[in-house]
Amino acid sequence: MSTFLEQRVLKCQKQLEDKGLEALIITHLTNIYYLTGFSGTAATVLITAKRRVFIADSRYTLIAKGCVTGFDIIESRTPLQVVSELLKADQVDRLGFEDQVSFSFYQAMQTAFSGVDLLAQSGFVEELRLIKDTSEIETIAKACSISDKAFMDALDFIKPGTTTERDLANFLDFRMRQYGASGISFDTIAASGCRSAMPHGRASDKVIQSGESLTMDFGCYYNHYVSDMTRTIHMGQVTDEEREIYEIVLEANKALIAEASAGMTYSDFDGVPRQLITEAGYGSHFTHGIGHGIGLDIHENPFFGKSDQKLQAGMVVTDEPGIYLDNKYGVRIEDDLVITESGCRVLTLAPKELIVL
Ligand code: GLY
Ligand code: MN
């Protein structure tokens, strides 16, 4: 078992003890990947103080035997029955389960595990995923470098007056795959002109015109981990107002990079760039949160808002201030940052100074 996976399972077992739980059943596939390295469409994991059990049906037995180590691998099409027998053998009567399971799965557990207290756990494994180890950080860095390269290529691809937003999105998606991505981490946003005032304007058939601003928000999966970056550029001429707004958003993005470090509260992480944008007179036009965690999911903990919770070294988060003027245009600049004890490391390295094509 890789040292990284072993550490994750050990932390999971420690957390079980801390929470006074005897056992945890895990069915959320992203969490199963995190703990075992297995990726497939169905599996069940049981972790107790002394057991690590991985259950999958015959489609996945050979795959699991190749990639899952440190777990007893059991082939079964009735995993709840297997778990039930193990719980009886170990006399477990308090079982934690992930609270995002479906209601029908919950009912099936009630039937299969009668006599066992079922204790809903909110974010049990997600809590472990909050702090990334070095292998995760370097994988996210690679995903970011793929997005960076695709962005640089897109600058040559865009031909104002000819290229549609959808052409551009397709180009970015394909380029990221060519550079090694296994897919895109969310539907690519390419929004030009007044459509860029929609923070999440999905690519349409609109032609990108000279004189417009263009926001691209995109990312990829590389070895299961995501990148998420946004750049706004301009076509042809730029008005004074557009330049001013661009500079305010850039300053907000950079101010957060200068301040972010372990120990900063979630409130301050959101507040530093928001105050800067508010003082510049555009506070009511920065209509969303400053960012979110990334990792195996495109949106994961931490989520920023009014909270005294503190950033910790090893968190990977986005820094994405924006200003949106309805019916005119919008600007957003988004980077991915790893929080460190003394500051942060920026993983998205594509240029941010105003680009005019
Ligand atoms: N970049 C997409 C999002 O953060 O929702
Ligand atoms: Mn984002």
Write the layout of secondary structure elements.
Blueprint: H1 3-18, E1 23-26, H2 29-36, E2 44-48, E3 52-56, H3 61-67, E4 72-75, H4 79-89, E5 94-98, H5 103-112, E6 117-121, H6 124-129, H7 134-157, H8 165-178, E7 183-184, E8 189-192, E9 213-218, E10 220-222, E11 225-226, E12 229-234, H9 240-259, H10 266-279, E13 292-293, E14 300-303, E15 316-319, E16 322-325, E17 329-332, E18 335-339, E19 344-346
Parallel strand pairs: 1-5, 3-4, 5-6
Antiparallel strand pairs: 1-2, 2-3, 7-10, 8-9, 9-12, 10-11, 13-14, 15-18, 16-17, 18-19
Bound molecules: glycine and manganese (II) ion.
Task: Describe the sheet with the most strands.
Answer: 6 strands, mixed
The run of helices and strands is HEHEEHEHEHEHHHEEEEEEHHEEEEEEE
Strand order of the largest sheet: 4-3-2-1-5-6
Small molecules in complex: glycine, manganese (II) ion
Total number of strands? 19
Strand content: 15-25%
The unreliable regions are none
What is the typical, i.e. mean, pLDDT?
97
End-to-end C-alpha gap: 50 Å
- Specify Rg, calculated over alpha carbons: 23 Å
Describe the structure.
There is one protein chain. The protein is α+β, with helices and mostly antiparallel strands. 36% of the residues lie in helices and 22% in strands. It has ten helices and 19 strands. The chain has a six-stranded mixed sheet with strand order 4-3-2-1-5-6, sandwiched between helices. A hairpin with a 2-residue loop joins strand 10 and strand 11. Helix 7 crosses helix 8 and helix 9 packs antiparallel against helix 10. The longest helix is centred in the middle third of the chain and has 24 residues. The model has no long low-confidence stretch (mean pLDDT 97). The site of glycine has 3 residues, from loops.
